[in-house]
Amino acid sequence: MKYRIKLLTAGIAALLCIQPLAAKDYDVRDFGAVNDGIFINSRIIQHAIDYVHASGGGRLVFYPGTYVTGSIYLKSNVTLHLEQGATLLGSTNPWDYVKDASVGWKSMIFAIRQENVAITGGGTIDGRGFITANNLVRYIHKGIFDDPLKLDRPNETNRPENIYFRECVNVTITGITLKDPASWNQTYDQCRNVYVDGITADCKSYWNNDGIDIVDCDGVVIKNSFFDAADDVICFKSHDPNAICQNVTVDNCTGRSSANGLKFGTVSRGGFRNFKVTNLTIFDTFRSAITFAAVDGGTIENILVDGVKSINTGNVIYLRIGDRWSQGKKPVLKDVTIRNVYAEVPFDKPDAGYGYEGPVEDNPRNISPASIIGLPDLRIQNVTLENIEIVYPGRGDSLYASVGLTPEELDAIPEMRTGYPEFSQFKELPAWGFYLRHADGITFRNVTFTAAAPDYRPAIVTDDVKGVTFRNVKFSEPAAEGKQQIFNYKTSNIIIE
User: Fold this and answer.
1) At CA 18, angle to CA 14 and CA 24, rounded to 5?
2) By C-alpha distance, which of 184, 258, 245 is closest to 217?
3) Among 206, 220, 331, 355, which residue is least crowded by beta carbons within 10 Å?
4) CA distance 493 to 103
5) Rounded to an integer, what distance in angstroms lies between the CA atom of residue 34 and that of residue 25?
6) What is the pLDDT of residues 158-179, one digit of tens each?
């Protein structure tokens, strides 16, 4: 009941910020804005925002046309309203973007410590990120701009996002399309009462194009939205060890990614608690449909994921504790329920053909199972998996690569305590369906594992698990009559019903 009350409170708080501001409309063209797709409007738009803010607030309306801009700052009580057919088009000149000193990032639209800010309507924000990022690369090669150019790409903070809001209260983003940023697409950092509804994020034009990043926010609703991303789809982060991302509802969203679908982390210094995610569809995604990564000292707790359809996705569930940047804090991952999931894992690369695919260094390998993997001294606790069906391709081949079930082979699987948390980080694992290690209190209830072709591995392997329940767990694998599908190693308090 406490969990439900907190979520209800978060939902009500977020809904309060969707009420339209009771103020007048202002036509941005009356301030001199030119919608010809050529003229740089940054100063004009900023003047218009400042004027509306000083006049008590209202909607700054962009009527159909293309308004080119660099960095602008949204102010309290101002809504940017983009009519259908209106586009805010990012300048392709990297020098037209500010690297804000307080957040250390570049963006087209900033809002820093403001209240009652919104972007609404049926229009588009187009960062033209591929062109802008490559223009920046040329400046770096010429020595005009200082950047390490790691992996042949400028640092994320030196490439403009489409939106970066920091420490704002009552944020509303509805109806718009956000496309082609040069870095992350939209970040809401340490904000309160964030409401996102009915948006489209088409962000696969360059590296690190996340769909949406929620960082240490309190009271968030994301619903009825579509994300097509080069990087993580819906990504929750915790950058501040003294903060936490909490009281979040996600409902009726669809996403595709060359990374992960729903992701908690990777940066997880403070943590995440009180989340409810429902009616999520993930497709053509290279990594995991669901990833929880507590690797930087933070806590992940009280999470419900209910209703997931994962089609053509490289992995379904990956829960991981690590000790990467913990700085003495002990990461925690506990009290998680994942239920009502249908998933199909392909044999081939699920994002093949997209412009920015997942990294080829993760392949080739036998298909990785879903996994819950802690550390010997930092254990994952109290996870329930209920009403789940996962269809795998099978075809795991011991002649290609093999991890067997002897104590020597199982003990040789590395802990990777400080490794970057991805489902494929261990390369080969000894199960085709689910692998559990260093965890306590794990329950499988009404779970079906299907392999389309034979696999040399058992469906489930547990290693150092204290308390695991298998209730109505079923397996289907060709030519596997009599095969032991559950293999327990160093595991106690096992219930199979």
Assistant:
1) 150
2) 245
3) 355
4) 49
5) 18
6) 999 999 999 999 999 999 999 9
Q: How many CB atoms lie within 10 A of CB 257?
A: 36
Using DSSP bridges, classify how beta strands 245-257 and 86-90 pair: parallel, antiparallel or unpaired.
unpaired
Task: Decide if 195 contacts 140 (C-beta within 8 A).
Answer: no
Residue type, 324: R
Tokens of 289: 């449909």
Question: How far, in Å, are 26, 48, 70, 128, 208 from residue 31 at the CA level?
Answer: 9, 6, 17, 25, 35
8 A C-beta contact, residue 69 and residue 37: no
pTM of the model: 0.95
Q: Among all chains, which residue has been given the structure tokens 């003495």?
A: 328
The number of residues making up the chain comes to 497
pLDDT tens, residue by residue, 194-221: 999 999 999 999 999 999 999 999 999 9
Rounded Cα gap, residues 268 and 299, in angstroms: 8
Structure token digits, residue 210: 């996340």
Largest pairwise CA distance in the chain: 78
